[in-house]
Immunoglobulin superfamily member 21
Amino acid sequence: MTVFSLCFLLCAELLDSAVGYLTVTIEPIPPVVVGETVTLKCNFKTDGRLREIVWFRVTDGGTLKQKIFTYDAMFNTNYSHMEDYRRREDLVYQSTVRLPEVRISDNGPYECHVGIYDRATREKVVLASGNVFLNVMAPPKSISVVALDTPAPFSRYQAQNFTLVCIVSGGKPEPTVYFKRDGEPIEVISYVQAPLAGESGGSAGVRGARPLISRDLDDTKLQKSLSLLDLDGKPARLYTEHPSRGMTPGAARFEPSPTTEVIPETVVSREFPRWVQSADPFYYFSAAQIPHSDGTVEVRAMLTWTLNPQLDNDALFSCEVKHSALSMPMQAEVTLAAPKGPKLLMTPSKAKVGDTVRITVQGFQNEVFPEPLFTWTRVGGRLLDGSKERDGKELVLERVPAELNGSMYRCTAQNPLGSTDTHTRLIVFENPSIMKHTQNQNNAASHQDVLGLIVTALILTVTAELT
């Protein structure tokens, strides 16, 4: 060992004896859930005299450090650097700070700075620090299932794609989303969805026809599909169906059972698709994430397949969410259903000539999903305003004339699973006030006619006498 080496070691020992040693370590914290209490523990070892312990919260990618708590060993006091109304830190033991009811905004890195007095000067402070990352998780706040591009008409002659969108909001980190049909997980084919920029309604989806795959058929729904065929295997004729019963079995074969709805002057008919799809579809799945400013993520998962109204009617689809902050999955479910038995309300109940009549769809005899499309037409003519048809849940007829008495109006309610026509008849009663006004006008006109005849007769008489 050289003389230089000996001198270097001797200087290092002298410096160490003058300054002392200081090491700082922080125990790692496992992920916590919003609302839980977190303890930040700063461990340090030193042979010097403690000056202070300061906790910082690091923000803006490490460029900004905000003091949150200080322990002053000189005066044996501690204080928070947050405003009184935001003070949520409690000193447990000098270097240990507790954060009750953590929020998503508490997520991020924290640093513990420890200062000791320099042995040589007794005035200089030697500092050391350690850091830890607090990962705050938040369970999803809401989950919902909607149909994309609705309301949409019923396709009578060809298959069409159908998309369910599961919207999960408020989770951190992003949750795992999957679909089930009738309680069974759906085997899906994943595809990449176009990025969702500034989402307003999630219009990105799958377009065009999709190929079909085979999977285990639901016997009950297969039976429904076969019930649309007659005994010869040909498509059954369209018929008027009562909401509570379908086809009435006859002696030799099934025959249509025409009935009318309970509502007086209202006839209900339901139309089935005129094509039968023989296999089940591929299910295509995609998911997009939309980050929010509070650190949470909104997930929009899409399930697209080629709709088969015969098999998919009354099918239960559920969207389930798994998240590390949840003890059990969240779930939202919808039952696909075509509209049945629309209920119409006409106001006023006894319309008179000159009244404004409103015919409104009050609801259905079943839960309808997705939202139906409503179209109004007049049987055998145009609507009062001259148009052929009008969309919406309500038809308004302003100042109805007597000529509309007995006219029939059709409300077509349809969604991709089926279509229903409801007919209601408008009865227009005479309006006494209008009749009285008309009668007075007629009387005045007749009086004027009589006076005119008398004057004419007098003139003729005088003329005859003069000649």
